[in-house]
Amino acid sequence: MSSDSKQQLHNLREEIETLRRAAHEDQKPVTLDQQSVGRLSRMDSLQVQAMAQAEDARRAQELRRIDAALGRIKADEYGDCVRCGEEIAPARLASDPATPFCVSCAG
Predict the structure, then answer these.
(1) Mean pLDDT of the region 47-65
(2) What is the pLDDT of residue 65?
(3) What are phi and psi of 80, to 5 degrees?
(4) d(CA 96, CA 88)
(5) Model pLDDT, residue 21
(6) Shortest CA distance to 97 belongs to which of 38, 10, 36, 18?
(7) If DSSP states are collapsed to H, E and C, what string results for the chain?
(8) What is the average per-residue pLDDT within 63-79?
(9) Domain spans of the chain?
(10) Nearest residue to 28 via CA among 6, 45, 40, 44
(11) Running DSSP on this structure, what letter comes out for residue 28?
């Protein structure tokens, strides 16, 4: 089970890293040159930048969850709830292989 999960986690990690690289352009500072861009365009650009930064933060958090799950695989603790120690349901791990909690502890 953990080898399939490990591969799935690595695939998810690579997908997120690819998305982060692709979105890098939207995170660059917005130029506030009034001659080249109108006020509404600048506001739109600032909004796009803020949304890109929020999305990047969400992706960074997901990468931390994936890295933690890979660490649990390495420590032979994968599939056990980090709070109560009970086994996490295989269906739950299949839907979210980085989940650290069983259903009871997640709720």
Answers:
(1) 92
(2) 97
(3) -105, 135
(4) 11
(5) 86
(6) 10
(7) CHHHHHHHHHHHHHHHHHHHHHHHHHHCCCCCCCCCCCHHHHHHHHHHHHHHHHHHHHHHHHHHHHHHHHHHHHCCCCCECCCCCCECCHHHHHHCCCCCCCHHHHC
(8) 97
(9) 2-78
(10) 45
(11) S
Average pLDDT, the chain: 87
- Roughly how many angstroms between the first and final C-alpha of the chain, as a whole number? 25
pLDDT the model gives residue 31 = 56
Tokens representing 83? 């709070």
What are the tokens at 105? 């502890």
- Structure-block tokens of residue 36: 């080249």
Residue 80's contacts (CB-CB under 8 Å, 6 or more residues apart) are 72, 86, 87, 88
pLDDT of residue 86: 97
Which tokens hold the place of 23? 């979105």
Q: Give the 3-state secondary structure of residue 83.
A: coil
The whole-angstrom separation of Cα 58 and Cα 52 is 10
- Contact (CB, 8 A) for 73 and 5: yes
pLDDT at residue 40, rounded to an integer: 63
> Between these two residues, 46 and 56, which has the higher pLDDT value?
56
